[in-house]
Amino acid sequence: MTVRSHQPWPLRVLVLIAAAVVVFAAGYWIYEQGRSFGGFGKDLHAELARLREQNAALSVEHDRLEKGEADALSRLNIEQSAQQQLGNQIRSLELENARLKDDVAFFENLSANGPQNGLEIKRLQVGNDLIPQQMRYRLLVTQGGKNDHDFNGQLQLLVTLQHDGKTDIMNLPDGAAGAASKPFQVNFRYFERIEGTFTIPPGATVKQVEARILEKGAVRAQQTVMLG
Fold first, then answer.
1. Which stretches of the chain are assigned E, i.e. beta strand?
2. How far apart are alpha carbons 117 and 89 in whole angstroms?
3. What tens digit of pLDDT does each residue of 71-95 get?
4. Are residues 177 and 138 in the same domain?
5. Which of 76, 150, 185, 191 could be cross-linked to 142 through a Cys-Cys bond (beta carbons 3.0 to 4.6 Å apart)?
């Protein structure tokens, strides 16, 4: 006859679980020992350290390049601004050189033939200035004949504008919608070259400019130039 001791089934389950835990712990310990023995763990830590160091270096390089880009853009903006100013100066000098050549030719012809009798406006020119919405005008006033006194009068400009589909007339300087660069007084004996600027409203286009020379309110000479 064989005698077996009877154990409750919960106790047997706990024994089996404890045995499984022991086996798993032993297997994990053996695996970790194998990794350490083979150098895998050391290599992994070294690789992580290298990657962290490389990432830090890349961050520093990124910041340096970003700052360099900002500095380059700033220098580019300064260079572009300086180049634009230089271009404006060159265009202004070219225009002035062309005007001086025309003046030389005109005065050479005037000195050879002399001015006609009476008061005249010659060479009325109007064009865009380098400043937006600003127009520049130039004209020459001559007085021929035997003159023993200076002419004293005023210059008046009638500027015809096209604005928002409507036609407006700007009277300079009286009731001017824009500002003139200097007083419109005229005082000379034989000839006077007059030059100045006036400002037009935003979006307006100059169609025509009429220049008048007044003496005591009466028109003594006039000339008109069409612009468009």
1. 118-128, 134-144, 151-163, 166-172, 185-188, 191-199, 205-215, 218-226
2. 39
3. 888 888 888 888 888 777 777 777 7
4. yes
5. 191
